[in-house]
Write a structure and sequence with these properties.
CATH architecture of the largest domain: Orthogonal Bundle
Distance between the termini: 55 Å
Low-confidence stretches: 1-8
Radius of gyration: 29 Å
Strand order of the largest sheet: 1-2
Number of domains: 2
CATH class of the largest domain: Mainly Alpha
Amino acid sequence: MSIPDNRTKILLANGDKIILKDFFHANYPVFSSFAASFVSDTNLCQDIVQDTFIKFWRNQNTFQNIFSVKAFFYKSIRNSCLDYIKHEKVKDKFANYYINQNNPVQYFWEEVIEKEAYSVVYQEINKLPEKEKEVLLLALKGRTNKEIAKDMSIAISTVKTHKSRAYKVLRKKLNGLILFFLFAF
């Protein structure tokens, strides 16, 4: 962490000065070791400590003395480590849910098939005449017929006609896709 020379001194509320560069070098190993008591990943510990130094730099005028500075560091490092641990638990819980509830291989293939199906459907939608394509894309975004009519400055009956034509074309073109899904599962 390199700080320009003209910004290395931090004046605390009681007039004492901390030279951040010296403070960093003197305390970085201690703070990293403290972070390691929560998290075993050395690189993550270093990142947490460096992030805490950045927070400190931004909040430098709020400290009364060196003890409150160190308390800030210990508390911030602890909280960052605990936040990381909580986040990892949530990720593990999510991963375990899919492993325990579903066959991971089946889940993978379901995701692949779903993405491929969306791709095929959108390719066919893009081949539709411009107005029908626009109406259908707005409908897929959850817009009502009334909202689509207002946005496009057309009658609601025209929206319904465009939708009907688009669905008819898509049914015809995507019939094979429906058969694929029936046999894929």
